[in-house]
Amino acid sequence: MRPQRFKAIGLMLAGVFVFSLMDAGLKRLSTEYPSIEVTALRAAASLPFLLAWIAWSRAWGRLAVGSPLMYVVRVALGILMLVTFIYSVSVQPLSDSYAVFMSAPLMVAALSHVFLGERVPARRWLAIGAGLAGVLIALKPRGAGLVSTGGLAAAASAACYALSVILIRVLGRTDSNYAMVLWYVLALAAAAAAMAAPGWQPVATAHWPVIACIGVTGALGQSLFTAAFRLGPSSTVAPFEYTALVWGLALDYLVFGHAPLPRVLLGGAIVIAAGVYVIWDEHRATATEPLGGH
Question: What does the alpha-carbon distance between residue 233 and residue 121 come to, in Å, rounded to a whole number?
Fold first, then answer.
C-alpha cells in the first residue's frame, strides 16, 4: 500500500476515536437542549481551536475557496446530518444509533463509484459488506430499531454524511484542508445558530465543560476526517469508520451504563477481519500495479 494511503487510514482511525468522544458529549447535551441548538454549540465551540490551528500553521494564505456553492450544499448536509444524529442519540442508546449510522461507509463506497469513478473490486465490496454485517450482529437495534424514529434519523444522518464525503473528495482537488474545515464549521455555526435563535435555551454553567470538550474533539475530528478523505480513496478509507464500534461500546458501558452482549464479541471480530482484509487487498493491488498507475 502506498505510504499516503497508510497515512489516510491512520488519520481516519484517529478521527473515529475523537468523534466518538464528541458523540458522547452530544448525547449528554441532547437531553437538555433542542437538537438544532446543540448543533450550533458543537460548531461554535470548535471555531477557537480551528483558528488557533490555522494560526499555528501560518495557513491564512491557504483559505481560498474554489466553489462557494459546494460549501453551501455541504453546510446544508452538515446541519441535517448533525440534527438527525443528535435526535437519534437523544431517544436511544449511542450503540443503537451507531448500528444504523454504520451503513454510511457502504453508501460512501457506492457513491464514490458513481460520482468519482473510483474502482471498487467485487472482493472489496464483499469485505465492506461483511464489516457492516459484523456491526449489525454486534449492535443490532432492539425490537423495531431499524424502523423507529431514532433508527430512521440515524439512517438519514448516514446518507447526509456519505454525500458530504463525496463533496470533500471533490473540494480536495482544489481547496486546502484549512479552507474546507474552517469555512464549513463557520457557516455551520452561523446557520444553525440562526435556526435555533427563536427557541434558544440558556446554557447552564455546568454544561460549559462538556461544550468545551465537544469543541476540542469536533475541531480535531473534522480536521482528521477531512485530511483522511483528501489523501485516500473513499472506498479504502471509509470502511475504517467501523472502528467506531469499539468506542461506541466502550462509551455506552463506561459512561451510560449499557453492558455489551456476547454477540458484540462476534461482530467485533468480523469487523476487524474485514478491515484487515481491505488493507491486505489494497496492498496486493498496489504491489501488482504498474508504475504510473492509480
Answer: 13
C-alpha cell at 281: 487487498
Q: What local confidence, expressed as pLDDT, does residue 291 receive?
A: 35
What pLDDT does residue 1 have?
Answer: 53
Kindly tell me if the per-residue pLDDT of 181 is higher than 70: yes
Cell matching residue 158: 448516514
Classified as helix, coil or strand, 163 is: helix
Cα–Cα distances in angstroms (integers) from residue 76 to residues 87, 185, 195, 210, 223, in the given order: 17, 11, 12, 25, 19
Chain centroid, CA 220 distance in Å: 12
Closest CA to 172 of 8, 23, 38: 8
Q: Quick check: is 34 in a domain? A: yes
Question: Which residue's entry shows cell 463557520?
Answer: 186
**Residue 288: what pLDDT?**
46
Whether the model clears a pTM of 0.90, i.e. scores above it, the answer is: no
Please give the C-alpha separations between residue 155 and each of 107, 195, 264, 283, 293, in angstroms, as whole numbers. Answer: 11, 23, 21, 32, 36
Q: Domain residues for 239?
A: 3-287
Structural domain includes residue 293? no
* Residue in the structure block whose three cell numbers are 452561523: 190
Please indicate, yes or no, if residue 280 is contained in any of the structural domains: yes
Give the integer Cα–Cα distance in Å for 45 and 220.
12
Radius of gyration of the chain (CA): 19
The pLDDT value recorded for residue 286 is: 60
Q: Is residue 21 part of a domain?
A: yes
Q: Give the pLDDT band of residue 36 (cuts 50, 70, 90).
A: very high
Residue 43 CA to residue 191 CA, distance in Å, equals: 10
